[in-house]
């Protein structure tokens, strides 16, 4: 037994377990009992039989009587005994939360963050505000539950938090605090005991923390780099605004953890159900999408070094609460110092949501710059069904050889993230007629535009200069019919010099300022390797085609622009991604194969079907809880209330029939037959195209 006899010169008590009757033993002023066995601290109760000589007890004052008996702890604030030396992180990771809090109170932890401490237990961010601001801040937390999952709101002047800990004092139990005066950070504090009177009118908010899931992540073989590097986690202010409430308005703060690429799916699946410690990541990949310019320049915490093969993964962060405190400009407020969390007694497995019904899936949607997205497994499977549905080959052209799995899913994910999209269509296969366009292409393009408009995105059309008037009539008619909600800018591209494409795509020709996030070509004639443009019959129609292909080529070298090609024969813009298969399996493929590759090549039996499928996929994604939360970065409220509005923007049989009638009225002919009739690629609207639309809707709805 290790301790000291009161009134003597810290004379060690005998370690054989024998104690004279009535001796009072004074231990340190922590308010807990510890047992040490095999060099590990184990929490004990406040009353315990004493019989084992390998116990170390720390507490206040105890009375010991002969034999195995119970001990009684009584406060002795005036006594300040010797306590153990500073404890290393490895040992701290095994200590119970009540023990770590006691060590923090005694200022016996030299580390400046609690990452890795009391492994497996929930940690919490802290915000302490005047009670007059408490209701608005609670609303702010609920409106931004990703960064600010509310674990407990105290009463004014309440130092304890019964739901989270048996014995705690928020004035002393964080490693360090930050003080704010009129919204301005005015210094760090090791204790808030000096502000006890002011805090009687203040409310403490305990908010979930990502440190809580580190143990679960490590148990699945995923490294926690900041723990490895013995530093704080990296934290950054973003350009993402939170949903404001009352006087609280700020941008999201995120943590960044490097994760090996092959562990991305695992780390997302682990953290997704842990809603009380921020849940799934809000961004994976290039930090620039969040407005973070340099990972080495943290706003809070330390820069954590990535290993080869690591991808930066960002979680919403409770330090957002500190930014909110600054915004409200309260005369006095406190927060924990970033990384110096409150450690609760709640095990992390008890906080994971038991109502999670969907499994998340991570997919890459861009390599330049690296960008990944999230979707539920169920939604991914539905979009896979859409992809399979449109892959039927009514013309027996051999398109099955061009198919690449998940191109529809990845393209639609990228479009879902995009803010500004440029679409091109128009295949002048009927060079002997005016207009030379075919009925495939425009309906699919308009279906995509309708859904993108419903999602609030900016959309423009680029087409051949000779076809501007035709496109005005078609898109204007789509507005008159109620298919489109807004006018669509109609652009044409002419090449004057080597920088024409760059100047068209970027503000002032600056590659760092692209005007568009995504380019889509649907049933758009594509340039072959010899520089010509061919229809399926190997007839050169170059004289009718403007070099819009060069926009797709230029986009390959502009960071932040992704491209999609939708086609049904391999000679369409973007199908260069599968040109070897086109040359091998498609009639006249050696000549007609498009040489220009898109990032994603969606292959369909009829290109319009590909456009319908993209619209349906966008609908599914934006009604997927996992993807929708990822899009809004965990701030604000779900957009599910817009479901009916989105549904009205889906393709429908009657809408597509009316649109095809409009095309025929403009003299646009069927691609394969040249008939001026209600058909596309020689296939009648009823019951070929109408049945495909119904099938896609059945999968979607």
UniProtKB/TrEMBL annotation:
SUPFAM superfamilies, alphabetized: PSTPO5379-like
Localization of this protein: Mitochondrion matrix
Superkingdom as given in the UniProt entry: Eukaryota
First and last residue of the signal peptide: none
Keyword GTP-binding belongs to the record: no
Reaction(s) this enzyme catalyzes, per UniProt: D-glutamate = 5-oxo-D-proline + H2O
D-glutamate cyclase-like C-terminal domain segment(s): 386-696
Predominant location category: mitochondrion
EC numbers for this chain: 4.2.1.48
Keywords: Lyase, Mitochondrion, Transit peptide
Molecular function per GO: D-glutamate cyclase activity
GO BP annotation list: glutamate metabolic process
Function: D-glutamate cyclase that converts D-glutamate to 5-oxo-D-proline.
Family according to the record: Belongs to the D-glutamate cyclase family.
Protein's name according to its UniProt entry: D-glutamate cyclase, mitochondrial
Native species: Xenopus laevis
Lineage, uppermost ranks: Eukaryota, Metazoa, Chordata, Craniata, Vertebrata
Gene transcribed to yield this protein: dglucy.L
């Amino acid at each position: 037994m290790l301790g000291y006899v009161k009134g003597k010169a810290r004379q060690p008590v005998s370690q054989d377990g024998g104690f004279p009757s009535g001796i009072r033993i004074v231990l340190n002023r922590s308010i807990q009992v510890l047992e040490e066995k095999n060099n590990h601290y184990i929490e004990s109760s406040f009353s315990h039989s004493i019989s084992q000589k390998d116990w170390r007890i720390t507490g206040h004052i105890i009375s010991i009587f002969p034999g195995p008996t119970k001990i009684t702890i009584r406060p002795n604030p005036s006594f300040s005994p010797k306590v153990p030396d500073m404890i290393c992180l490895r040992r701290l990771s095994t200590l119970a939360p009540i023990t770590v809090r006691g060590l923090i109170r005694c200022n016996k932890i030299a580390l400046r963050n609690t990452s890795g401490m009391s492994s497996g237990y929930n940690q919490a961010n802290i915000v302490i505000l005047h009670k007059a601001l408490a209701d608005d801040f609670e609303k702010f937390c609920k409106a931004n539950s990703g960064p600010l999952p509310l674990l407990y709101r105290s009463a004014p002047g309440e130092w304890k938090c019964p739901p989270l800990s048996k014995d705690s004092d928020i004035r002393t139990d964080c490693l360090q605090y930050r003080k704010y005066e009129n919204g301005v950070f005015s210094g760090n504090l090791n204790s808030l005991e000096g502000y006890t009177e002011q805090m009687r009118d203040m409310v403490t908010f305990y908010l979930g923390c990502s440190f809580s899931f580190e143990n679960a992540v490590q148990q699945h073989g995923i490294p926690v780099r900041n723990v490895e590097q013995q530093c704080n986690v990296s934290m950054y202010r973003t350009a993402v605004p939170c949903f404001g409430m009352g006087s609280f308005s700020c941008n999201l703060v995120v943590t960044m953890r490097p994760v090996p690429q092959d562990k991305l799916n695992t780390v997302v699946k682990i953290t997704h159900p842990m809603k009380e410690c921020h849940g799934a990541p809000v961004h994976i990949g290039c930090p620039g999408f969040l407005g973070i310019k340099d990972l080495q320049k943290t706003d809070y915490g330390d820069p954590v070094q990535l290993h080869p093969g690591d991808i930066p993964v960002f979680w919403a962060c409770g330090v957002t609460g500190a930014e909110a405190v600054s915004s409200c400009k309260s005369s006095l407020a406190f927060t924990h110092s970033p990384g110096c969390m409150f450690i609760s007694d709640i095990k992390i497995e008890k906080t994971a949501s038991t109502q999670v019904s969907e499994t998340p899936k991570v997919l890459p949607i861009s390599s330049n710059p690296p960008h990944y997205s999230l979707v539920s497994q169920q939604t991914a499977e539905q979009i896979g069904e859409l992809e399979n549905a449109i892959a039927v080959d009514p013309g027996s052209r051999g398109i099955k050889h061009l198919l690449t799995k998940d191109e529809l899913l990845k393209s639609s994910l990228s479009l879902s993230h995009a803010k500004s999209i440029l679409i091109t269509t128009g295949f002048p296969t009927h060079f002997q007629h005016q207009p030379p366009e075919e009925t495939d292409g425009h309906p699919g393009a308009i279906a995509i535009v309708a859904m993108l408009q419903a999602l609030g995105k900016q959309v423009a059309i680029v087409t051949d200069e000779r076809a501007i008037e035709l496109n005005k009539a078609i898109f204007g008619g789509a507005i008159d019919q109620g298919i489109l909600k807004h006018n669509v800018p109609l652009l044409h591209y002419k090449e004057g010099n080597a920088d024409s494409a760059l100047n068209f795509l970027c503000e002032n020709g600056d590659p760092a300022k692209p005007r568009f996030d995504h380019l889509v070509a649907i049933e758009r004639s594509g340039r072959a390797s010899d520089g010509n443009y061919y229809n399926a019959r190997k007839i050169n129609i170059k004289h009718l085609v403007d070099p819009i292909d060069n926009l797709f080529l230029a986009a390959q070298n502009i960071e932040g622009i992704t491209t999609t090609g939708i086609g049904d024969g391999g000679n369409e813009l973007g199908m260069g991604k599968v040109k070897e298969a086109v040359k091998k399996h498609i009639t006249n493929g050696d000549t007609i194969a498009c040489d220009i590759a898109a990032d994603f090549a969606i292959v369909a039996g009829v290109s319009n079907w590909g456009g319908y499928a993209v619209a349906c996929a966008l609908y599914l994604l934006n009604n997927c809880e996992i993807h929708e939360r990822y899009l809004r970065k965990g701030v604000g409220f779900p957009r599910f209330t817009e479901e009916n509005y989105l549904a009205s923007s889906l393709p429908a049989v009657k809408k597509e029939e009316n649109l095809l009638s409009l095309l025929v009225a403009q003299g646009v002919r069927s691609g394969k037959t040249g008939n001026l009739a209600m058909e596309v690629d020689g296939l009648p609207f009823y019951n070929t195209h109408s049945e495909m639309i119904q099938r896609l809707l059945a999968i979607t709805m």
